[in-house]
């Protein structure tokens, strides 16, 4: 039985900052941000969006009444949690109108958690093929203003519907995993921004990729040449390119050119959003599927998921005949319609997120065009609004 990704859809903010403008404000060479790091625009998440609203805005438009009735598992992967106890998935299930018989949980292991969610969802659907599972990776990447990590911020949510006979990608049942205690990136409960050893984290990422890639090929006896394209978690798009370059000597020159050409399509949309932690690999997958004219049904794609701390996984999926039908076809136009804001406006949004205090607070939600918005906090409870309710 085939099980995998039936539909996938992305949501982020309606605003972005241009990386050349940000580089100038930080007295950095624009080419460092656009070429050295590989980002051209960065999503500016307003205080009226958090992981709950991003997740609901990503998923709601792609779910039909039949999907809603069949979903009995919702997993939100995130490292931008809003509560130490209650799962963000409960709020998301409520906003989406999912059944109260749906199992709803939040998962955490840095940028890797959505992949763990997909693997659990896949196992669940294999046991219950008439059911569907919704997996959402939702995050806001925050390192701080004027930090080396700043040009690798961003945010958004990727929603994926996992089902039997999927329209987009049939997933392999085998995968290779590596999990070890590494202090490359973490965020203690008292911090709103990540602590990171940037260069070390980039090196660990490559080590993990090489390890799980080889392990997968050996374990499944798959020749590297069988993989049409490799898709990466992209904390910044140059990171994936560095990892890809590290395994190019394993294939012929023709295949090297093919992999590099596919990679350029797979980073197109990530270049315009920035890091979205858990959702990043899957935005890259969507970018590849939406923009690459050289893909064919039956192509086998390799997926590398990495979460600092650290956990990595490599698995594969086979492109299905009607894969375009399950894609978020309007995404390039939505990104194009976003509003460009200046660095001062971006900094105000960055500093204006709801404070982690008990006081009542309000956001400027009226200027946010999305269906689901965070209007503030009252009596220590987050207030969400569905404009269509
Ligand atoms: N023109 C072109 N390129 C230039 C340039 C110029 N004028 N100036 C510099 N560059 C290049 C540099 O040569 C370098 O390229 P290479 O890495 O290929 O050598 C690149 O631009 C970046 O320059 P620096 O190394 O000097 O940049 P930096 O020290 O300011 O920081 C960073 C870069 C370490 C990635 C930092 O942004 C950071 O800490 N980011 C957050 C951590 C991160 O994303 N880690 C990734 C792995 S962890 C993970 O994947 C999980 C997750 O999501 C966080």
Automatic annotation (TrEMBL):
The keyword Disulfide bond does not apply. GO terms for molecular function: hydroxymethylglutaryl-CoA synthase activity. It is an enzyme of class 2 (transferase). Keywords: Acyltransferase, Transferase. Residues 256-349 form the Hydroxymethylglutaryl-coenzyme A synthase C-terminal domain. The keyword Amino-acid biosynthesis does not apply. Residues 2-165 form the Hydroxymethylglutaryl-coenzyme A synthase N-terminal domain. Its EC number is 2.3.3.10. It comes from the Bacteria. Belongs to the thiolase-like superfamily. HMG-CoA synthase family. This is Hydroxymethylglutaryl-CoA synthase.
């Amino acid at each position: 039985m085939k099980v995998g990704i039936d539909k996938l859809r992305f949501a982020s903010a309606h605003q972005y900052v241009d990386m050349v403008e940000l580089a100038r404000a930080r007295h950095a060479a624009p080419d460092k941000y656009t070429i050295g790091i590989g980002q051209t625009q960065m999503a500016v998440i307003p205080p009226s969006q958090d992981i709950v609203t991003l997740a609901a805005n990503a998923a709601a438009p792609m779910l039909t009444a039949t999907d809603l009735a069949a979903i009995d598992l919702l997993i939100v992967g995130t490292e931008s949690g809003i509560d130490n106890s209650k799962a963000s998935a409960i709020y998301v299930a409520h906003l989406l109108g999912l059944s109260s018989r749906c199992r709803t949980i939040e998962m955490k292991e840095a940028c890797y958690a959505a992949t763990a969610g997909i693997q659990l969802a896949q196992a669940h659907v294999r046991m219950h093929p008439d059911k569907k599972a919704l997996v959402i990776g939702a995050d806001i990447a925050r390192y701080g203003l004027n930090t080396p990590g700043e040009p690798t911020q961003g945010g958004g949510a990727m929603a994926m519907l996992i089902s039997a006979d999927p329209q987009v990608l049939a997933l392999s049942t085998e995968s290779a995993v590596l999990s070890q205690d590494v202090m490359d990136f973490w965020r203690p409960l008292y911090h709103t921004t990540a602590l990171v050893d940037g260069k070390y984290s980039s090196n660990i990422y490559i080590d993990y990729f090489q390890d799980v890639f080889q392990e997968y090929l050996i374990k499944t006896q798959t020749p590297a040449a069988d993989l049409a394209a490799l898709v990466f978690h992209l904390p910044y798009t140059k990171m994936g390119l560095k990892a890809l370059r590290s395994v190019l000597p394993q294939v012929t020159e023709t295949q090297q050119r093919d992999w590099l050409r596919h990679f350029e399509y797979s980073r197109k949309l990530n270049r315009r959003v920035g890091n979205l932690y858990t959702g990043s690999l899957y935005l890259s997958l969507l970018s590849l599927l939406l923009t690459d004219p050289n893909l064919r049904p039956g192509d086998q794609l390799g997926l590398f998921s990495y979460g600092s701390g650290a956990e990595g996984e490599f698995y594969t999926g086979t492109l299905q005949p009607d894969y375009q039908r399950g894609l978020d076809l309007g995404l390039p136009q939505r990104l194009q319609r976003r509003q460009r804001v200046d660095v001062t406006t971006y900094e105000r949004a960055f500093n204006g997120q709801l404070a982690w205090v008990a006081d009542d607070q309000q956001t400027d939600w009226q200027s946010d065009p999305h269906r689901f918005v965070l209007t503030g906090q009252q009596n220590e409870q987050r207030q969400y609004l569905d404009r269509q309710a």
